[in-house]
Amino acid sequence: MTVRVRIAPSPTGNLHIGTARTAVFNWLFARHHGGQFILRVEDTDTERSRPEFTQNITEGLAWLGLNWDEGPFFQSERLDLYQQAIQTLLNKGLAYRAYDTPEELDAMRTAQKAKNQAPRYDNRHRDLTEAQQRAFEAEGRQAVIRFKIDDGRTIQWHDLVRGPMTWQGSDLGGDMVVARASSVDRIGQPLYNLAVVVDDMDMNITHVIRGEDHIANTAKQILLYEALGGQVPNFAHTPLILNQTGQKLSKRDGVTSISDFQKMGFTATALANYMTLLGWSAPDSEELFTLEDAAQKFSFDRVNKAGAKFDWDKLDWLNSQYLHDIPATELVNLLMPYWQAAGFSFDPVADQDWLTTLAGLLGPGLTRLPDAVDQGRFFFSELMDYSEAANKQLHQAGVADLLQVTLEKLQSGSALDSLDTGKTLVNEVVKAQGIKKGLMMKSMRAALMGDMKGPDLMESWLILHQRQFDVPRLKAALEQAQS
Ligand code: GLU
Question: To 5 degrees, how large is the angle CA 103–CA 106–CA 112?
Answer without folding.
Answer: 145
